[in-house]
Design brief:
35% of the residues lie in helices and 19% in strands. The strands form two sheets. A nine-stranded mixed sheet has the order 9-8-10-11-7-12-13-14-15, with helices on both faces. A six-stranded antiparallel sheet has the order 3-2-1-6-5-4.
């Protein structure tokens, strides 16, 4: 039922039986012992070379004898078997025995060029034949799971594929080959996923970075990259990482997060959402502040939906994460230096170049260093509605960090001049935090209103007030409105939105009382 019919050769099967030189090895006879992985005479396609050639099958494992007549391997477990359980070990053992045989029988160059559905069908037929030869009894579901894992190794990211497909997982943290943590609902948990060894994990790392033209090796042991779906990846390998390669993946959200969705999830109050919508429509320059993993980029994506489709937007990031929906968006990404230490393009250089591209708004993925000065100058020179994120625990700390990063440029400016430029450039700071119950909440919406002497003055429109904890461990609190008249009310009036703004503030103030 699952085998290949005699006389109907598959497209990916080597052509040695037809009297022509085989591209990848020679198809072994059914009675031959299981051979080791042969070195291909032609180079593999990039997608398959890493995982199959470095599949982690040692010579002793590959040369292990097959079961004698009448002996069979126990069935492999279905997907989801707990890590370290006997069933999981058996299916992994079966895959290791089958991989070298599969490599001997297929032309990997042809395989990676085929449509995935057709490749799956043909691999399934070959796998069924091999399982019969080595006397492994698997049912249909188990065979499909085995074929899926083989395809993940050939074309995808191996053991990471199920985690990338799991929408409940937001972050993946790999601490060496045998320890993979994931974040679900704001909590870190140890997953069942493991890699065969550090070589296997390094192969996956190489595949990730090579797709975007970067490299990871002893000469370049640090790398920022992204996956095909936009997920952000950071990789650090030995000798810097002492316990094996360490990989951090911030997953790209397939479900688009909007202010409406954040309102339903109680990340902010309805009145706060209204104020942020009006701030976006009024082209305020907004700085989003928060800690690592607090949801700054997600909030930036949500706020960017308020941008008019007719505006030209330029985005600048180290690794492209933003998911802007507008039709006129130019995406720029930094470039690291090459092995000779040349060719690096920083965010600061991209900000300077963006000013020559006639943008209506500039969106900076994250302010980290000297680009702070160029971004402030852009906000002060007609690019209203620009946005950026920054690492800080409170709005006032965000201002201090911004001032410190301007000093990193080496430009000797008086403190009063820097603060005056910040006041003229930034209109609003939105603080977001991931709290101990795993929920992300907007804790401050703060306006910058001016200067008193050499001190930047601000006013909090909204704050989050912690009140307690319920029986399920979820935090209880309320979004408190100060009742102050927003400093940008006059600007909202110019856009015809001042009544909606004041109604939202008054409604929130009434609820607070």
């Amino acid at each position: 039922m699952f085998g290949r019919r005699r006389g109907t050769p598959l497209a990916i099967v080597t052509d040695a039986d037809e009297g022509q030189p085989a591209t990848v090895g020679i198809e072994p006879a059914a009675t031959a012992p299981c051979p080791a992985v042969a070195s291909p005479t032609a180079p593999f396609a990039e997608a398959a070379a890493v995982s199959l050639a470095d599949s982690g099958v040692s010579g002793a494992e590959a040369d292990a004898p097959r079961p004698s007549d009448g002996e069979t391997f126990a069935p492999a477990p279905r997907a989801g078997t707990a890590a370290g359980s006997p069933g999981r070990d058996l299916i992994e053992s079966t895959k290791q025995r089958l991989t070298p045989l599969l490599m001997e029988r297929i032309d990997v160059g042809r395989a990676v060029a085929m449509p995935v559905d057709e490749l799956r069908r043909q691999i399934s037929e070959i796998v069924a034949e091999i399982l019969t030869e080595i006397k492994v009894n698997l049912n249909l579901s188990e065979q499909q799971d085995l074929v899926g894992q083989l395809l993940d190794d050939m074309l995808g990211l191996g053991p990471l594929e199920p985690l990338l497909a799991d929408e409940s997982v937001t972050d993946i943290m790999i601490n060496g080959a045998k320890q993979v943590y994931v974040e679900r609902k704001g909590k870190l948990v140890l997953s069942e996923v493991t890699f065969r060894n550090d070589q296997h994990l390094m192969g996956i790392c190489t595949r990730i970075v090579s797709r975007i033209g970067r490299r990871i090796d002893e000469m370049t042991p640090l790398c920022d990259a992204r996956l095909a779906d936009g997920s952000r990846v950071n990789i650090i390998i030995p000798p810097l990482a002492l316990d094996g390669p360490s990989v951090s993946i911030r997953k790209f959200a397939k479900q688009k997060i909007t202010l409406d969705a954040m309102e339903r999830n109680r990340n902010l109050s309805p009145q706060m959402a209204t104020v942020l919508r009006i701030a976006g429509r009024c082209r305020l320059n907004i700085l989003i502040s928060g800690g690592t993993g607090s949801g700054k980029t997600t909030l930036l994506n949500a706020l960017s939906r308020m941008i008019d489709p007719g505006e030209r937007v330029v985005t600048i990031e180290d690794a492209a994460e933003l998911q802007l929906q507008q039709p006129h968006v130019v995406r720029l990404e930094t470039r690291p230096a090459n092995l000779e230490g040349q060719g690096e393009i920083t965010q600061r250089e991209l900000v300077k170049n963006a000013l020559r591209m006639r943008p209506d708004r500039i969106i900076l993925g994250e302010i980290r260093s000297a680009e702070a000065l160029d971004m402030l100058q852009a906000m002060n020179t007609g690019h209203d509605g620009s946005m950026a994120t920054i690492h800080a625990n409170r709005p006032r700390e965000a201002l201090t960090r911004l001032e410190n990063m301007v000093a990193m440029t080496g430009v000797k400016l008086p403190n009063e001049a820097v603060r005056s430029q910040i006041v003229g450039a930034v209109n609003m700071i939105v603080q977001i935090a991931r709290m101990r119950d795993g929920m992300r909440r907007i804790t401050y919406i703060t306006e910058i209103v001016g200067m008193e002497g050499d001190i930047v003055t601000t006013q909090d429109l909204f704050t989050y007030e912690f009140q307690g904890e319920d029986a399920n461990g979820s935090l209880i609190g309320r979004f408190r409105c100060s009742g102050l008249r927003p400093h940008f009310t006059q600007r909202a009036e110019y856009f015809g939105l001042h009544r909606s703004l004041l109604d939202a503030i008054n409604s929130a103030a009434d609820e607070t009382r």
